[in-house]
Amino acid sequence: MNSIILITGILISVNSGLSSNILAFLPSKARSHYGAFEPLLKELAVKGHNVTVLSPFSMKNPPSSYHHIQVEDEDLAMSFNPFSVAKHFKPILVPFRSWFMWPKFTETILNKPSVQKLIHSEGLHFDLVLFENFYHECFVTLGHKFNASVVQLFPSIPNAGVAQWHRNPYDGSYIPDINTGFCDNMSFIERLTNTVLSFIHIALSSFFYFPKQRDLMDKYFNYTGWETRPSMESMLKNISLTLINTHFSVGTPRPLVPSYIDVAGMHLKPASTLPEDLLDIMNNAPEGVVFFSFGSILKLTQLPKNEFDIFIRQLGKIKQKVLFKWESDTKIDFPPNIIVRKWFPQADILGHPNCVLFITHGGIHSTEEAIYFGVPMLAISVFGDQLHNSLVMQNRGAAIRIKYSEFTENEFQIALYKMLNDKSFKTKAAELSLTFHDQPLKSLNKAIYWIEYVIHHNGAHHLKTAAGELTWYEFLLIDGLFLVVIMRIIITIILWYVGKKLWRRFCCLKSKQI
Ligand SMILES: *[C@@H]1O[C@H](CO)[C@@H](O)[C@H](O)[C@H]1NC(C)=O
Ligand SMILES: *[C@@H]1O[C@H](CO)[C@@H](O)[C@H](O)[C@H]1NC(C)=O
Ligand SMILES: *[C@@H]1O[C@H](CO)[C@@H](O)[C@H](O)[C@H]1NC(C)=O
Ligand SMILES: *[C@@H]1O[C@H](CO)[C@@H](O)[C@H](O)[C@H]1NC(C)=O
Ligand SMILES: *[C@@H]1O[C@H](CO)[C@@H](O)[C@H](O)[C@H]1NC(C)=O
């Protein structure tokens, strides 16, 4: 009887969780970003929300309340070879390159017919708009178009330029900008670089970057009623919730304002059984298996032959079997312990107990998977957040990082043997995995909880700190500092003046006495 009441109660409470109309505006062609959000979009639909997703990628077997708007495909392939620019990679220059490059991508996206159709649609109703803000600030105006609350999805850790709108802390002394490739214990020069970078993101972006986003917004988001829209800045400040792809066991510990929720690795789930042939390889490797993959963005076919040969030569000498992801059709003779394929089920391989080492570029998803399954990493990091992610792992004893720009055969060989022979890397990786798993809510459930929270509380604007209302000089207490300096000057002048008077009188008295 009790259980019947309980079950009825649960059913009622499930049904009373009102279903909402949710728009996910993800028109950019970044497969790894979409892959990280897809489980969230699916789960929202499974929970009964009416989810409309605008994306170049479609979901396999979507739930019935999931609607996909196909964005016309176009290859936005990287026009440069990341391996050749790695050597010239300077953290300080990253923002300038991004400000130049990304608005062009954004404009290409905004020109797509499906995107324009949605922007100028009439009669659609949404309670909530999700958008990915990876240099796409102008998308925030969809919240105004649909009179809906806005949730911002961030594929990695926001830099100071993004964090400034909600005044999420970005102190240069201990919060590394991921593009610097630094960890949280920085040397003097590193702290200086990091702080200058934050300054560039905040002070210079308003001259060199935000005007471009404003122009894009004015040009492409001229929907009926756009005239009443607030400034882009106030719409960005008005964002209800920001979901960021980090966690203190993945990145460096950092404070977050209440509207910033860390949801690292929403895509992670326990490993599935491998296909038979791979399972056979994994199970019949008495010394274990090394998995080698540089992810989906870096193509090993672009790797210079010299470095490629180093990998093959060194990996061919070890006792372990090596699963090697290589996208080329070229036939070359690999050593017998190296099994080459264009694609591997990465997570399921890392989740197999016989996987002893992951040789990776250190991208955020690969790093999260390595942590989730407790596999040590040998990271050859090329650019972007790879240098940061892998340095964090190295400082925790679960990885060795080699900067691609400083890569040598000798260094690779030493690191490889060290990692295969020293058990401490595995121990640290396993400890890290425990801290990642020990969370009150799984990342995916946490994200769903907070999104529904925003819906239930009409945008949950009470989560915002008062800092958002302050001007920059109030926020940095420059006005207070100014007052203190003025007071000191006034007091100094008074003291000097009074001192002079007293001195004169004292002197005069003395001279009169004489
Ligand atoms: C769900 O969203 C679609 C737009 O993708 C809309 O046409 C449909 O009317 C919505 N359904 C409900 C029940 O609101
Ligand atoms: C926008 O939504 C709010 C409730 O969230 C409502 O009070 C307001 O009337 C709506 N504005 C328009 C123009 O529909
Ligand atoms: C802020 O968002 C709410 C919805 O959550 C909306 O009603 C309001 O108009 C927005 N204000 C600004 C300044 O964008
Ligand atoms: C940061 O800490 C790690 C390990 O704790 C150490 O190896 C590294 O040298 C430190 N870096 C700096 C810049 O102090
Ligand atoms: C929006 O702007 C484009 C040009 O940028 C123009 O062709 C179009 O007619 C405008 N649409 C509306 C509804 O004003």
TrEMBL record:
Subcellular location, principal: membrane
Keyword terms, alphabetized: Endoplasmic reticulum, Glycoprotein, Glycosyltransferase, Membrane, Signal, Transferase, Transmembrane, Transmembrane helix
Transmembrane feature ranges: 472-498
Name of this protein: UDP-glucuronosyltransferase
Family stated for the protein in its record: Belongs to the UDP-glycosyltransferase family.
Cell compartments where the protein resides: Endomembrane system; Endoplasmic reticulum
Membrane topology, from the record: Single-pass type I membrane protein
First and last residue of the signal peptide: 1-19
One GO molecular-function entry: UDP-glycosyltransferase activity
SUPFAM superfamilies: UDP-Glycosyltransferase/glycogen phosphorylase
GO CC terms in record: endoplasmic reticulum
